[in-house]
Amino acid sequence: MNNKKAVELKNISKIYGKRHAVDNLSFYVEEGDILGLIGPNGAGKSTTIKITLKLINKNSGTVKIEDYDLDTSYKKAIKHISFTSESPSFYEYLNGYENLRLVANLHKTISNDTIFDLLKSVGLIESYKKKVKTYSTGMKQRLGLARAMLSNPKIILLDEPTNGLDPRGMNDIYNLIKKLNRENKTTFIISSHLLHDIEKICNKVVLIDNGKTIFNGDMQSVLNKNINLFNIYTSNNSEAAELIKELDGVICISNNIDSITMKINSNDIINIDSLKKLLLKNSIQVTDVEKIKPSLETLFFLMTKED
């Protein structure tokens, strides 16, 4: 089933001096998707978010929100999308309700009932009379989500929504996102460094590096990739990784604390025993080798390898 495109970026470029922060970037998210936007630091995620919200101007390309061109039909486009940052700011001396009411006053149709419904949906109905300066980080994140939802947008863009939260707080935010997506059909674009969590909550993923789209597809297509991945545990991972890099048909994806993750090309016959002998020849003991399933993290390391 082909769903309507909620947001589409096409051939977007943003240049600062001689540096391409975003370089001919293209991707789209369909209505009802939860899309994870990932990439290394400096990949262009923040710039992409700002361009999508027209907080900065692009050098070229087009952005469409619900089929409206952001340049030529700004008001019609921007009303469908909302945003909350990794550290949402509020009037600390006001309570939760008062902060939302201030924003609601900018709109003609947002009633107190709507505000209280939102406070209930984000789990703050018991705390709405408390001053925001007494709120925990997680409560402020949830209030930020409520504020983003005030205008009943079709799309919400989140930048590091679980920044500074403990595992319980992170789980609360993710459950809330899934609830809003399920009940309201809200489309989410989530920029985050937490790949394990993105893998759990998102059904689509876009990986960008050096301002370019490196991967754009379904999360299941990542997890179902037919690639040979192994973790190898040795007595000296640093030296072992350097030796593995010299082997044809083997890609050293990451050097972990206790193991090395490597990809063996399916069209190359690589014998694990031969690899063990090579390492042993160099006085490196191999304690274990295990085949592992693909994950978003392995895709990230494989596709953003440093030169």
Summarize the structure.
One of its GO terms (molecular function) is ATP hydrolysis activity. The chain has 307 residues and is α/β, with parallel strands linked by helices.
Task: Give the helix tally.
Answer: 11
Q: CATH superfamily membership of the largest domain, which one?
A: P-loop containing nucleotide triphosphate hydrolases
Q: What spatial form do the alpha-carbon principal axes imply?
A: globular
Q: Over all CA atoms, what is the radius of gyration?
A: 23 Å
What is the CATH class name of the largest domain? Alpha Beta
CATH architecture of the largest domain: 3-Layer(aba) Sandwich
- Please estimate the helix content: 25-40%
Strand content: 25-35%
Named CATH topology of the largest domain:
Rossmann fold
Structural class determined from secondary elements: alpha/beta
In words, what does this structure look like?
The chain is an alpha/beta fold. It folds into two domains: 5-222, P-loop containing nucleotide triphosphate hydrolases (Rossmann fold), CATH 3.40.50.300; 229-306, 2-Layer Sandwich (Alpha-Beta Plaits). Helix content is 33%, strand content 29%. It is built from eleven helices and 14 strands. The strands form three sheets. A six-stranded mixed sheet has the order 6-7-8-3-9-10, sandwiched between helices. The chain has a four-stranded antiparallel sheet with strand order 2-1-4-5. A hairpin with a 2-residue loop joins strand 9 (204-209) and strand 10. It is globular, with a radius of gyration of 23 Å. The model has no long low-confidence stretch (mean pLDDT 88). Belongs to the ABC transporter superfamily. This is Putative ABC transporter ATP-binding protein YxlF. Residues 7-235 form the ABC transporter domain. Keywords: ATP-binding, Hydrolase, Nucleotide-binding, Transport. It is an enzyme of class 3 (hydrolase).
